[in-house]
């Protein structure tokens, strides 16, 4: 089975590919010659995932899944949410996003947060949605050097380290993307 994962993010692609069974040949947007950035104009994480999956399905006629992930911080009215990748601006600068989030939380006692991943599968001319949520909190400092995005400041519930201090396997087992991916894999295995 050949399936496109609608991403240009090499770290995310590696993380997802490691979870998939070997009989699924995973292709990235780069692999299919899709150089454009697919606009994320929906007002929800789920909506952005659907936009990306349908774009690839319609333009390239290939079965595709796309994800969108957002970090929702309770005391910031669930910011950055759908704007997580561009919280500090359109440059998608992870360090700037982290610094802005830590600054916005300086006077907040409640640091509870959750990561939410929505995966939209566009296959056989229909869409199916898979959701993964990981509850946790935002640390007061940057900890760890693996992972990407907000991983150095997100500490999952019942753990004493951030995602960036965990191995890829540990993160996949408990994380939002891993939860959504397992649902997708279960569906594809049927």
From TrEMBL:
Name of the protein in its database record: dITP/XTP pyrophosphatase
Record-linked InterPro entries: dITP/XTP_pyrophosphatase (IPR020922), ITPase-like_fam (IPR029001), RdgB/HAM1 (IPR002637)
Membrane spanning residue stretches: none
Keywords: Coiled coil, Hydrolase, Magnesium, Metal-binding, Nucleotide metabolism, Nucleotide-binding
Top-level division of the source organism's lineage: Bacteria
Function: Pyrophosphatase that catalyzes the hydrolysis of nucleoside triphosphates to their monophosphate derivatives, with a high preference for the non-canonical purine nucleotides XTP (xanthosine triphosphate), dITP (deoxyinosine triphosphate) and ITP. Seems to function as a house-cleaning enzyme that removes non-canonical purine nucleotides from the nucleotide pool, thus preventing their incorporation into DNA/RNA and avoiding chromosomal lesions.
Coiled-coil features, chain-numbered ranges: 91-118
Binding site for substrate: 7-12, 69, 148-151, 171, 176-177
Organism, as annotated: Aequorivita sublithincola (strain DSM 14238 / LMG 21431 / ACAM 643 / 9-3)
The protein's Enzyme Commission number: 3.6.1.66
